[in-house]
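Entry 14. Ran structure prediction on the chain below.
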Amino acid sequence: MRIGLFSEVYNPYVSGVVTSVTMLKKSLEELGHQVYVVTINNKSNKYEYDEKEHVLRVPGIDSGIYNDFKISTIYPIKPLKIIKKWNLDIIHTHTEGSIGTYGRLLSKQFDIPIVHTYHTMYEDYIYLVTKGLFDKPAKKLLEYFTLFYCDKTVSELIVPTQKAYNLFKIKYGVNREINIIPTGIDVDKFDRSNNDKNEVIKLRGSLGIKDDDFVLLLVSRISDEQKNIKFLIDAHKNIIKKHKNIKFLIVGDGPDLENMKNAASKINDGKNFIFTGMVPQDKVALYYQLGNIFVTASKTETQGLTVIEGMAASLPIVCMDDDSFKIAVIDEYNGKFFKNKKEYVKAIFEIYEDKEKYNNMSKQAFTTSKQFSIKYYGERIIDVYKKALNKEDKTLLTRIKNVIKRV
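Output, structure tokens:
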């Protein structure tokens, strides 16, 4: 198949959506398909097409939401010649924003089946726009927009978790088939046996991590409103009262990085906190090797890919009791859930103080991660593409019309 992936964000931007699109492209290509990406150019106001990687970037403008997040015009005309030459069989959108709308318009114009993946639980973020004002009408408008985009204009809808499925089926009352397909990851990339031990030792030294340090790891965009990071920083004060060798390693960048550093500096002068800032994408797996437990207090995830990456690195998971993590985390098997700071601290102590429990959870986390391989991910997505194509049931006249349109 010739497949077009339309996403507002793509490498080198770091987010769960980027990981999902990147892994999907890799998986589909390994399965023998031709994959193209349409995304926004976050670095300049130019059109750029990487013919080797088949990535087309269109100029972006500031979104007004985040400094590093841009949107495009609804229907950029200049890339049409390039996209028409691709002769796509399927358009797969990964955003409800401007690039997603562009993909939807191209789907209608060229009569190409469209599949959509709903990645983001927007209701969890709506306060970033409303600031607490007019929340109810804003949520109603969001529901209308979501239903229009995800229900009325796509051949097939994909969600990564039961949490997102319930949003459509129970809250929004959608009466259509919804495909639950968790995003796959490159499990081998995070496997401890596949990472250079000397590089890991060197990295530990450069970050000041001692041999007897026990490391809680968070890999995340540093946005407290989204990821609830200050919760973990504040709770760490109670952790180091009992165990001074437990460090908190926070990997990533974002708008609240300096705020989180300031909050950490007030706890034992920040000695038990390590902030790396942005790290190169090809080095991220190395940082997972530094951790002993992966932690997150986020309540706004749709799936939580970093949790699965942590599992692939054999890390037990301690996470907020949220449905988004339950597709992978099993309480007391490969991790623990918490609802408040007291439960979080208790969970850390239980795993740290019981080596047998730690070792068992570590092994079981790694075993669980195998369910999320990118090969399996790609195969399941292809099944959805086939369903979308079968729904078209085109006549010979329609096929001729499509050929003419694409010439």
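The first strand starts at residue 2 and ends at 6. Will compare against last week's run tomorrow.
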